[in-house]
Automatic annotation (TrEMBL):
Primary site of residence: membrane
GO molecular function, one term: transmembrane transporter activity
Name of protein: TRAP transporter small permease protein
InterPro entries: DctQ, TRAP_DctQ
Membrane topology: Multi-pass membrane protein
Domain Tripartite ATP-independent periplasmic transporters DctQ component: 27-158
Pfam families the UniProt entry points to: DctQ
Cell membrane listed as a keyword: yes
Keywords, sorted A to Z: Cell inner membrane, Cell membrane, Membrane, Transmembrane, Transmembrane helix, Transport
Species classification: Bacteria, Pseudomonadati, Pseudomonadota, Alphaproteobacteria, Rhodospirillales
Any single biological process term in GO: C4-dicarboxylate transport
Length: 187
């Protein structure tokens, strides 16, 4: 089980690297587009479409890395005040529900990608990019995100991680540990 959890974490980190690389490439392509359009007075053909696809792919492919780092937006006020047992079950319900949603999205995304590939869809622009290429980011990103959720659930069940990453204390104690700079205003 440790090998699976570490392997998924490694793949999620690789996805984070790819997502960052796609953002960097998008910045360079936008710079190229602005230079080509305004400095050289030439039309741009592929740059806008490429940047849109790259940023969407960056979001989808980078999502497992965000989950690995717990960097997503979290409404944890209930979890902070909950007892350890309720916090565990709250984390399990949230993780299993998110995993179910991701599996559905993976299934339909893979079907959509396959349709784009098998029917040789192309964009309706002058660039005419084969649409299976940008559509591949949906099943890949959400597939790895699903694996990361499985690893998170296994880590929760086996006690390798704490629910929501919070210490096993409750109420004001948990808030003062989470926000030590404001401990005097919380009590």
């Amino acid at each position: 089980m440790d090998i699976f959890i570490r392997s998924v974490a490694m793949v999620s980190r690789a996805c984070g690297f790819v997502a960052g690389l796609l953002i960097l490439i998008s910045i360079l392509v936008v710079t190229h587009m602005v230079f080509q359009r305004y400095a050289l007075g030439q039309p741009t053909i592929w740059q806008t479409e490429f940047v849109i696809y790259a940023l969407v792919a960056s979001t989808l492919i980078g999502s497992p890395y965000v989950l690995l780092l717990r960097g997503h937006v979290n409404m944890d006020i209930v979890a902070i005040y909950a007892g350890p047992r309720f916090r565990f079950w709250l984390a399990m319900v949230a993780s299993v529900g998110a995993l179910g949603f991701c599996l559905l999205l993976f299934w339909f995304g893979a079907h959509y990608w396959y349709e784009a590939w098998s029917k040789d869809w192309h964009s309706d622009t002058l660039w005419r990019v084969p649409l299976w290429i940008p559509h591949l980011s949906l099943p890949v990103g959400i597939g790895v995100l699903s694996l990361q959720y499985v690893a998170e659930i296994l880590s929760l069940v086996t006690g390798r991680t704490l629910p929501f990453g919070l210490p096993p204390t409750t109420g004001t104690e948990a808030l003062t540990q989470s926000f030590p700079a404001h401990a005097d205003t919380l009590t």
